[in-house]
Amino acid sequence: MSEKIHWADVVAGEVPRDMVHRVATGITPSGPIHIGNMREVLTGDMAYKALRDRGVTAELLYVADDFDPLRKVYPFLPESYAEYVGRSISDIPCPCGEHKSYADHFLTPFLSALKDLDIRPRVIFARDEYRAGTFTKEIAAALLHTAEIRRILERVSGRTLPADWSPFYPVCSVCNKISPARILEHHETHHTVRYRCSCGNEGTADYAKGEGKLVWRVDWPMRWAHFGITIEPFGKDHATAGGSFDTGKEIVRKVYHHDPPHPVVYEWISLKGRGAMHSSKGVVVTINEMLEIVPPDVLRYLIARSKPEKAIDFDPGMGLTSLIDEYDRVSHEGTSREFQLSQIASVPTRIPFRHMVTVVQVARDDRGLFQCLARSGYDISRTEDILAQAGRVRAWLRKYAPDQVKFSVKDQLPARMRELSRKDLETLRSYTEFLERMDGWGAEAIHNGVYQVAKEVGVDPKQIFEAVYLAFLGQHRGPRLGWFLEALGREPVLGRLREAGILCV
Ligand SMILES: [Zn+2]
Ligand SMILES: [Zn+2]
Fold this sequence. Notes:
Elements: H1 7-13, E1 21-27, H2 35-53, E2 58-64, H3 102-116, E3 122-125, H4 126-132, H5 136-144, H6 146-157, E4 168-170, E5 182-187, E6 192-196, E7 202-206, E8 212-214, H7 216-227, E9 231-235, H8 244-254, E10 262-266, E11 269-271, E12 275-276, H9 287-291, H10 296-304, E13 312-314, H11 318-333, H12 337-342, H13 353-362, H14 366-375, H15 383-399, H16 422-437, H17 443-457, H18 461-473, H19 481-488, H20 490-502
The site of one zinc ion (ZN) has 6 residues, from loops.
């Protein structure tokens, strides 16, 4: 087999070893943070871990852009948010009423998801930094270089900026908006600007106190310089010709005398059949919703196994079961780099997802769940962990599972048994007798018995499968029969099948 180098190791190998590296990620918490956004932090985290594995000193940063303005009333917001458009998402109310601010509403669950995914960055809150005066020097430099920045932006991006354009937007003291106000005067020693807002207000903003912020295209390169960022993943929208990375590269060199970071451009994650995820359009599965269903290491694996430049079409239905199966396979081998970068120390061995899908639908409650699992020979000592796994599978069944994997065990012999012919019922009785004679109660033997009996009696095995499913589920299909009957338990299975056998007498 040829040695394939994992993409994260490729990234780590592309930068010089003999310096401290800072890998930056950043997401604006202006809407639900979805699994498309997760690619940003996971790409950064894997590059960071690959650096560390090479013995390079590295740090992972997550910058929360919580000082950004609300851009519009997104589809998931009530109309009443119209009055907040233009104001900082840190200064407007949260949609549910339980968080400190709008930004916190989306950030809090996201930060907890990062922990679950074993991503432990230094978290920087943009608004706090602006308020603390962290960027005062850099804002002054941007204001002093307004003409030069403007030339770069116009030349590289091809856009024409208004005559009174400024890289700094003050927070207007009257309308409270982060406003593209006209800057009338800059007082460097007092770190203030005089401005005239479109609302008519003329005021003074102190940029050492966070009374305004740099526009995105300048804010980004400013951060590279300030924090010493050397590697940064970002979405392909920033990577287009004349886009914010292109303008940022020039601005960081000319204004801040710093090199731009090594870029890692990533593609979108789309939801099968629903298109690329965009929080502004409401087409999302949030990271937290995903973690209700997918084990965190499998979610890491989804990102680890694809190069960043490859689009991911994620199917949370049956596609998820295949993904989990694939992960279980690589984790048994335990050697691949994809697996190493996906692993989370605290996650123990799992019960196969497909089996859990059967067991949670067979068991009436948690006690039944543990009985089923014990019957199949699983170690059930890690109670909490097993309950968490069962909880994820139940949520998957509720939200994403296709109908063909769902079933419910009927309390009584279903009326549909009457559909079976006398011959079918006799065959079923032969299979029942086989089960009665069987040593032990194992999935494989139960399953193979169907073929053995079918051969002896001279019928298609399908007839036995259908008759058994009908007897328990009132439908012709069901989960893999061996696991299913094993999970139900010997006595309940024999009881029901004997009852069915009486029908043919
Ligand atoms: Zn809230
Ligand atoms: Zn104003």
